[in-house]
Write a structure and sequence with these properties.
Layout lengths: L1 H18 L13 H15 L1 H12 L2 H4 L4 H17 L3 H13 L7 H13 L3 H15 L15 H21 L3 H22 L6 H21 L2 H21 L10 H23 L3 H14 L4 H17 L3 H18 L2 H17 L3 H58 L4 H67 L4 H6 L1 H11 L3 H13 L3 H8 L5 H11 L4 H8 L3 H14 L8 H7 L2
């Protein structure tokens, strides 16, 4: 599910990058330095995100932008920073920048930012919030008052159509997550019809690749929906439409000659590659392995500049080879995908391929190899957690610098204004009072906005920590369950051995695996994460009974996360009966009244 969310989010971002009014083509811009700055940011954003963050931060610290003299430019830079952090899988940081982008244009309709808010909620799995944001954007795009003005002041008629198409497609994605396939079908068909009208109008005589890619994208989404629905013939029909329109263009165009920031052109190659990636999966399900192989090879050639989709293609090809009982070829393709991920720093995709590799080992009864990969997954998750934390810290530091620069500029302006007022106080005392009142009101509004943003960021970060805690618990349970199954299989094979010496030689291995079920390392990691979410919980337990043991604290923490007795028993490596006895002794230590349940006490603690 997490990999699917990340995959769909990238589709949204690419659609947004093509359609956002600040990213229109540069016709009519001349030599204006403001537009040159945005062009420079677009050059960095996709291939060098760290450099893009540094560049955008320096621009926003300049006086004319930090002081609000150019709100559209400032909003565009905040928006691009949000997109970068969204692609880095840091939704809370992305949300804070999108809020800043909205703040700079308080009296303007900003439906593309509503789309971005929807993308943040989508990445967090908050489907209803995401749907509400997309519906709000769609409503604005469909109003006759939305002209879609670009930065150069010209009206972009296609901007409204692109916005409607993007919103409809994203709403369809939400309905798929909610298992409402009929509703998703309606949204995708509306997007196709909308883009067909624009495609027929704009491509009278000469094919415009940007419009063509917008037209084909909902066809791909509809094909993917039919595949999930089990309607393979209808899925292949949609893919054939993509072939008919995109392949002739592909054969004539040179991908290397397309500018990296021109997403309207490059999106056509992405859609074509994704279509053949889906064909790989469909042909595998139909046991048409030669066609699956051909589709895979073509998708790899098209997606060479899209490493996320390229690594996913290798994963699908590995599944095809495994279905042909060719474990070696499947592992070879997984390793190829892993090399792409490691080269491009795609930690989330790398984790997904490692999980696929573990599944193949498990299905092939290679449990030792599966355990080795499980350890790699554990290390990779730790790396991802560290990366997220460093990203949060970096974002906080950047925002602190921006706030500091903004406040310094405001202070400087305020001092100059006060000096001017003091010089003119003898001429117009009433003017001083008006200006002073206006400045005070403006400062109060800014403080209120900052406080609101910080509160939103705090809430989002707390929700993320709680989600990470649940994921950590789920992973620990899955690990212990896997190790327990390995012990059972080991015990069974031990009984098949007639030689007692052979049976005895397996006991150290069994004991080592048993010790690994609860070796304390997982608990320390869990305890640290738990303390981040409930910082005062353990202190409260000690206040009730200073003699409470570490084992009792561990039990209380698991109960606080609403784990059942069976799951807790797995984490302790004990029987359910033993856990029930521990709960009974814990009640005595806490001196709980008969009418007060242990869970009531635990849930009441903070």
């Amino acid at each position: 599910m997490h990999r699917n969310k990340y995959y769909l989010l990238l589709i949204f971002s690419l659609l947004f990058g093509y359609a956002y009014p600040e990213n229109e083509n540069k016709n009519g811009k001349g030599n204006n330095s403001k537009f040159a700055l945005i062009d420079s940011l677009l050059d960095y954003k996709t291939i060098q995100p760290e450099r893009a963050i540094s560049f955008a931060t320096k621009v926003l610290q300049r006086e004319k932008y930090a002081s609000g003299d150019y709100p559209k430019i400032e909003s565009a830079f905040y928006n691009h920073l949000g997109e970068i952090y969204l692609r880095m899988n840091l939704p809370s940081q992305a949300l804070s920048y999108f809020i800043e982008a909205k703040r700079t244009l308080p009296r303007k309709k900003t439906p593309w930012l509503d789309v971005q808010f929807g993308n943040v909620y989508f990445q967090q799995g908050e489907w209803l919030k995401s749907k509400k944001a997309y519906e709000k954007a769609l409503e604005t795009f469909t109003t006759k008052f939305f002209s879609g003005r670009r930065l150069d002041g010209k009206v972009s008629g296609g901007n409204s159509i692109a916005g409607q198409s993007t919103s409809l497609s994203n709403l369809g994605m939400i309905e798929i997550q909610l298992n409402n396939y009929e509703s998703a079908l309606v949204y995708f068909e509306k997007a196709i019809e909308l883009n067909r009208e624009n495609y027929d109008k704009e491509n009278d005589g000469e094919v415009k690749l940007g419009v063509l890619s917008s037209y084909l994208n909902p066809h791909y989404l509809l094909a993917d929906l039919y595949f999930k629905w089990g309607m393979l013939d209808l899925a292949m029909k949609q893919l054939s439409i993509i072939d008919a329109l995109a392949l002739p263009v592909y054969e004539q165009m040179d991908l290397e000659s397309i500018p990296s920031q021109d997403m309207g052109l490059r999106s056509l190659y992405r859609i074509l590659g994704l279509a053949y990636n889906l064909k790989t999966i469909i042909y595998t399900d139909q046991n048409n392995f030669q066609a699956s192989k051909d589709a895979f090879l073509f998708s790899v050639s098209v997606l060479k500049d899209w490493p996320i989709y390229l690594s996913r293609s290798y994963g699908n090809s590995a599944k095809s080879y495994f279905k042909q009982d060719s474990l070696y070829k499947a592992l070879e393709h997984i390793d190829s995908g892993l090399r792409v991920c490691q080269l491009k720093g795609l930690d989330i995709e790398e984790l997904g391929l490692l999980q696929l590799k573990m599944e193949l080992f498990e299905n092939s009864n290679l449990n030792k190899s599966a355990v080795d990969v499980a350890r790699e997954i554990l290390v990779k998750k730790s790396v991802i957690d560290d990366y997220k934390m460093s990203g949060i810290i970096e974002s906080v530091e950047i925002k602190s610098e921006l706030y500091s620069s903004r406040n310094e500029l405001l202070d400087s302006k305020r001092k100059q204004r006060i000096l001017q007022i003091l010089i003119g106080v003898m001429m117009l005392l009433s003017g001083l009072l008006v200006v002073s009142y206006r400045n005070s009101k403006r400062h109060s509004e800014q403080i209120a906005i900052i406080n609101e943003q910080e509160n939103q960021i705090t809430q989002v970060e707390l929700a993320n920590k709680e989600a990470e805690l649940v994921n950590l618990s789920t992973f620990a349970l899955s690990k212990n369950d896997l190790l327990a199954n390995i012990i059972k299989e080991l015990e069974y094979h031990t009984t098949l051995l007639n030689n007692k010496e052979d049976q005895k030689s397996l006991k150290p291995l069994k004991k080592k695996i048993q010790n690994f079920i609860d070796d304390g390392l997982d608990w320390e990691t869990y305890k640290a994460q738990f303390t981040n979410v409930y910082p005062n919980f353990v202190d409260y337990l000690f206040s009730q009974n200073p003699e409470i043991t570490n084992s009792d604290i561990k039990l209380c923490c698991y109960l606080k996360m609403n784990m059942n007795t069976k799951d807790i028993a797995q984490l302790f490596g004990l029987t359910v009966r033993a856990i029930e006895n521990k709960r009974y002794r814990l009640r005595k230590k806490l001196n709980l009244e008969t009418e007060t349940s242990l869970m009531t006490f635990i849930n009441g603690a903070r």
